[in-house]
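Lecture 7 notes. Example A: sequence first, then its structure tokens.
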Amino acid sequence: MAEFVEYRAEGMIPELEQMGQIGLFEKHEVRTIVKKRKEFEYKIQRRTKCKEDHLRYIQYEMYLLELTKLRREKIGVTQKKADIEYVIANRVNRLFKQAIQRFKDDVTLWITYIKFCKQMRFYSYVSRTLVQMLQVHSDKPNLWCFAANWEFEESHSVENARQFLLRGLRFHPESRMLYTEAFRLELQYAAMKQKQRREKQEAEEKKNAVGEGSSTSAPSRKESQGISGQTDGEQQETESVSDQVLEGRLAEVIYETAIKKIHDVHFLIDLLAIAKEYDFTAKLQSQMVNYLRDTFSNDELMWDTVAHRELEGLTYIDTQSQEESSPMTASPGTSETNEDTMKNSESYLLKQRIKLCCEVYTAALKQLPTDRMWSLYLEMLVELNEDLTHLPDFKRNLLRDAFEGAHSAGCMQEKYYLLWVDKLKSLGNLKKMEDVLRTATERLPSSVELWQVRLCFHLSRDDEKLGLAVFQDAMARLGSDNETALPLWKVMLQYYQTNDMLKVEQMFQDGIMQQPAISVPLKPLYLEWLVSYKGIVAARKMYQSMCIQPPLCLELHTKMAALESVQSNMNLKYVRRCHEMACDQFGKTNTGVWMEYIKFEQNLGDAKKVSDIYLRAVRNLDPVNTDIFVSEFSLLKTGMTMVQEHTS
């Protein structure tokens, strides 16, 4: 191994000499480079190979390469680049190859190497590396896609990209990712070729325009054939194939193959969304929508997709049946109107698109009157109402009618009830709002947010009796052990604090007698209210009672200690009592209670007590937490020492 390392070191000598000669590095820096490289070489030649050693070596060489470039810019030296930078880059390339050979299973290593090759413009290595990577990782569809994207985007080879995707599909015949990438690739390629053809035609037109005459501006068809060496039949065949590519026929073949393998509405909708990005795919999109309608007529997402296409102006036309009665075959051009002056206006066209969209949803709801279908319809209308620049009343009325329809059908979800209530509130329709909230909480009794809105509605109108009835009904439906019901308790407490202080304490006392989900968070709030309303003495008395009343609450002790600490005449005895109770009840598993006690004595109390608290903590904590506590205490002690030294 030593001989091999020395051999490697000898190979570095010319490069290092060049670094010194042109002044990129000082002699001591060159010696350091030699030393570091030898260390790395020894590590990567060990019997037990370690990936991290290879990565550190590569990282060091990359750093050295970057440093060399910076030094050149700084001192203005440009010579010997091939003898230095190129050699370093080749060394990194060799190190990457060694690492990949030894750690073939590491996908990240392969990808990092390919990115390095791109950075160094070692493009010739990439294609070979991609093939090698896929021989090892043929089970990963994303890598087949990665290879195809590289060939298409970087190498500009659509044939190689196709081959990668087709080979990937042989390994993964039902891979959505590979079919999606193959579909996108063919459309991208078709769009690129169309652009090239347009540019070529424009160039020829310009050339013809500046020519002396049409007879001399371009070669005849016969001359063109003579130049290209193609017969009429060959040229027509070539043009036919080219036209099919330009029209996206290859993408259509991919699509037809994919739907035979994958029967999923989400997948098909993803393909449709890709096709929609290209303006030459109208026929293909129509074919895809036909298949969607025929195959997934019982899927809400299909109807939602078709409806959104109507909204975008991509009107569905059934090329097979042309059924006038179907809302999905309607078209703005088929409806007769005398409002000729409005046909070109933006508002008119938008209104027509919205109508067609809503007709699709209406047809869908007749076939699928489900919660999900109503939610998709409502979501579309909610988004539509976010922009009221055009047709504000028309959009609002549609949303109102949809809210009513979903409500009547019993298919309204919480989100849309809340939105509807908000709309009714803004309109001042309180009677309707009350009715909707009552029905909503009956249909969705587990929705805390709906109960909260309903409770706030009645309390905001000072209807305490009805509000209390709603609160009690909510508790019965939600359950007293449901922690999500806590906001309702807080609403009632806030209301009474504003309107009737005498009932606040009764509410708190009722709350702390509930299940832990409610009582535990209310106990600290009760203390805080007592201090502000009745004073610290009343809070101490209640604390003494609550601190031993199950369920035990750590936040209760923390809150009381904080309240005692902010008193104008702080009594250390009462603060210590809080810390003592916290340590007694939670000191076996919680290191924080001991640390807070120590900090209190160190900062506000008696520092002499710290050692006793420390010993008690070590005796009481379980073994795992004892080690944690000792570490925390050591850090605290170190921090205290540093502060004392700084202030002295």
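Example B, a different protein, same format:
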Amino acid sequence: MNLINEASPHFHGKGSTQWIMGMVCLSLLPTLVASVFLYGLGAPLLVLVCVATALVTEHVCCRLMNRESTAGDLSCVVTAMLFAFTLPANCGYFPAILGTVFAIAVVKMLFGGIGCNFANPAVAARVFIMLAMPIALGAYPDIMGRPLDAITGATPLAMNAAGDAPYSYMDMMFGLHAGALGETCIITLLAGYVFLLVMRVVDAWATVPFIATVAVITGFAGQDAIYQVLSGGLALGAFYMATDYTTTPMTPKGKIIFGIGCGVITALVRLFAAAPEGVAFSILFMNMFTPLIDRYTRPQPAGGVKHALV
């Protein structure tokens, strides 16, 4: 009998990769619907462009690698949706397409496909576009039916860094402020995350330490901790990107360390760096340490030798 050795994740039945990714896509739909009410039809069209690009890119990469297409497992759709959610609704199609191709072709398929990538493709694509085309991410559209003030396009984090915080907590919860099309409406992101928790698709081992660490550090620094938690891409990053199977640690202890690390870096970037946001950088940075964290936190077999830190 011929055995095929493939990369993780290994799921069967109800827990198949396709089922898992389908649940994640389903959990993102409320936020996608909210983006229509906030930014108009341009938001779902941008998401659709990213999804179509991801499907085509993954299929082409599989053909070039002489492998059966894996586009049907929906992992590329999840990547495309998450990446699109980090973009302004008015950023244009070229940055969206370029970032999606980078996420799928370079970050994912170049390293062997699902289960082999060292970094979260959506996060890496966001950082890539942030560095390669910063102007595309520098302005945000007005909210439909609620024009912004003279500082149009300024996100809550940018305004907070400038010493101004004009938005209420309720505005932040319902996305009534400038921001990326899938990052602003916290209530729908939270609903999607709770759905994934109930369906046992994700857990809270990394999410809670991530958010709590940001709140504690920014609170001790004299910032409004609740405002910091509700603003920027923290909710999207903590709920969906810090819970990625492939690029985050396997054990609860490892996930806690990962979440705390992400929280520390995010808080430090927000407090001291020139850029007001640090979620994407923090997750990408901690992705690099996932193998090391796994090495020192994985359960030891009976009689096994523990690895020393030095």
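Note on Example B: Confidence is low (pLDDT under 50) at residues 1-5, 147-152. Residues 17-39 form the longest helix (23 residues).
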